[in-house]
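User: quick one, sequence for these tokens?
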């Protein structure tokens, strides 16, 4: 997974691996099965596209501290292997990684915050409504050269979402489609797509846990009705698209 290409790869659930001009960014990666409890709840249903040991990263973004967005089953291995790796996220994510990530390898990113990773590579934190599930959860805007990727994070649909995040043009929108734990489901996710009118929308947050639900076919149908100008990209786990 080392490349100088510019692509985004779905790794399952809400996780993505992004490369841009040699910079390798993990976004809410979850490749372990650390969320499963002794009763078998939140068991991983689909295998990851690669072994965690194959992941090479420069930056790891965790939009909030839930275990399927901040993979405590892999953090120590990733930070031991990738000596320059930095963790980026809100305070809750950084706190949850206390025993696995040294303080000098953490970068705080709150709503309204911005981190410059390199010339023409900027990461911004924006508003996200995950309710009481995670009070400081963020959406993430990645400005990569001339391309803008907006990852909504775990957020509900609300009519004022665009106003709260700020208006910006979006090339690729990533939105959760599971109708549980405060996320919008197919209809709400399609409405979010209509708000931002991206060139491409990628649904996520489905097929990982039985408890999550989520139906990509239903989302594609809703998008065709609500945002027909947008390309709806239903990715297979491990599939990449260039930008």
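Assistant:
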């Amino acid at each position: 997974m080392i490349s100088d290409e510019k692509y985004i790869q779905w790794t399952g659930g809400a996780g993505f691996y992004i490369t841009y001009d040699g910079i390798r960014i993990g976004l809410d990666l979850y490749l372990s099965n650390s969320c499963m409890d002794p009763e078998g709840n939140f068991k991983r249903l689909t295998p990851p596209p690669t072994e965690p040991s194959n992941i090479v990263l420069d930056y790891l973004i965790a939009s909030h501290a839930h275990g399927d967005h901040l993979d405590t089953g892999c953090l120590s291995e990733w930070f031991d292997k990738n000596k320059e790796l930095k963790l980026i996220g809100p305070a809750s994510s950084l706190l949850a990684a206390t025993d696995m990530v040294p303080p000098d390898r953490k970068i705080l990113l709150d709503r309204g915050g911005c981190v410059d990773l390199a010339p023409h590579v900027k990461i911004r934190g924006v508003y996200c409504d995950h309710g009481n599930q995670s009070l400081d959860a963020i959406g993430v805007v990645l400005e990569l050269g001339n391309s803008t990727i907006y990852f909504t994070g775990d957020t509900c649909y609300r009519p004022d979402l665009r106003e709260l995040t700020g208006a910006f043009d979006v090339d690729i929108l990533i939105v959760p489609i599971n109708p549980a734990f405060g996320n919008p489901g197919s209809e709400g996710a399609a409405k979010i797509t209509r708000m931002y009118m991206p060139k491409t929308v990628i649904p996520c947050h489905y097929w990982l846990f039985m408890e999550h639900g989520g139906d990509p076919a239903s989302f594609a149908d809703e998008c065709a009705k609500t945002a027909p100008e947008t390309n709806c990209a239903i990715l297979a786990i491990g599939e990449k698209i260039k930008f």
